Amino acid sequence: MRISSNTIYQWLEEDLPYFDLTTQVLGVGGMQARMSYQCRHPAIACGTEEAAVLVREAGAQIVSMVNSGETISIGQEFFVVEGSFSALNEITKVIQNIFEYASGVATRTQQLVSAAKQVNSAINILTTRKVFPGTKALSIKAILAGGAYPHRLGLSETILLFKQHIDFVGGFAAIEDCVARILAQDCEKQILLEVESAEDLEAVMHLPIHGIQYDKINPDELSVLVAKVRKVNPQLTQLAAGGITLDNAALYAATGVDGLVTTAVYFGKPADVGVRFVKL
């Protein structure tokens, strides 16, 4: 995945609007140094390619690095660079922030993917749009590194009718005509409908749509609904959403749905990444 250099430089400008005052007053900026990053626990690395952009911009050199998506072990030096102390100290905290937040998301994603696939090897893990504003590009890269895919990258991508949409077009009693109107206007885009109950499902499972998204339906009830749809309209994609976490991912995966839609991987403890400087 590509994140533009301009975006990455903006991350640096937030921390370095002008110059590094501490290094300036100490007069040590011209000294040569090696800077290395290690994680204090096993993790999925993410953001090393973006960190490399900052290293090159600072005029430093990369000694070694792992790729995003690779597993790193405790204490492993997974990103090592050399250059002037000034160049390295200017970028050290931004790089550490990238690693901690992105690798934290990637690691939680990999854990959830692993838990779900242990009981349903074909299942997809799909992440929502509920990222903290301004972090979307790095968040998407992190979930890809962890083995998931974005559910929707934005409102322009797919047609997904939530409860508020359905209410405003006349409810489930009017949903068949609504779908027909959508197809008459945009036959190319996939249509998904969200349902919250067995009654909702009855109104939509025969329709010429791409899929159904079940919202906050418990795993026992969901298993019954998924099996019913498989008999009536087997080509429909079925997704479980609402409250999917690492703790219950396996239960929802066992229901037979095609995918789990989750926000949980975006929120949690960052990876615990340390940085070490050595004078050359």
CATH topology of the largest domain: TIM Barrel
The largest beta-sheet arranges its strands as 7-6-12-11-10-9-8
Low-confidence stretches: none
CATH A-level architecture of the largest domain: Alpha-Beta Barrel
Strand content: 15-25%
Arithmetic mean of pLDDT: 97
So, the CATH homologous superfamily of the largest domain? Aldolase class I
Shape: elongated
Radius of gyration: 23 Å
Question: Mind describing the biggest β-sheet?
Answer: 7 strands, parallel
What series of H and E elements makes up the topology?
Answer: HHEEHEEEHEHEEHHEHEHEHEE
CATH class call of the largest domain: Alpha Beta
Q: How many distinct helices?
A: 10
Termini Cα gap = 34 Å
Strand-helix topology:
Elements: H1 5-15, H2 21-26, E1 32-39, E2 43-44, H3 48-58, E3 61-65, E4 71-72, E5 77-84, H4 85-117, E6 124-127, H5 136-145, E7 149-150, E8 159-161, H6 163-168, H7 175-185, E9 191-195, H8 198-204, E10 211-215, H9 219-232, E11 237-241, H10 249-253, E12 259-262, E13 273-279
Parallel strand pairs: 6-7, 6-12, 8-9, 9-10, 10-11, 11-12
Antiparallel strand pairs: 1-5, 1-13, 2-4, 3-5
Helix pairs in contact: 1-3, 3-4, 4-5
Could you describe the 3D structure shown?
- The protein has 280 residues and is of the alpha/beta class.
- It folds into two domains: 5-113 and 268-279, Quinolinate phosphoribosyl transferase, N-terminal domain (Aldehyde Oxidoreductase, domain 3, Alpha-Beta Complex), CATH 3.90.1170.20; 117-266, Alpha-Beta Barrel (TIM Barrel).
- The chain is built from ten helices and 13 strands.
- Strands 7-6-12-11-10-9-8 form a seven-stranded parallel sheet. A four-stranded antiparallel sheet has the order 3-5-1-13, with helices on one face.
- Strand 11 (237-241), helix 10 and strand 12 (259-262) form a beta-alpha-beta unit.
- The protein is elongated.
- The mean pLDDT is 97.
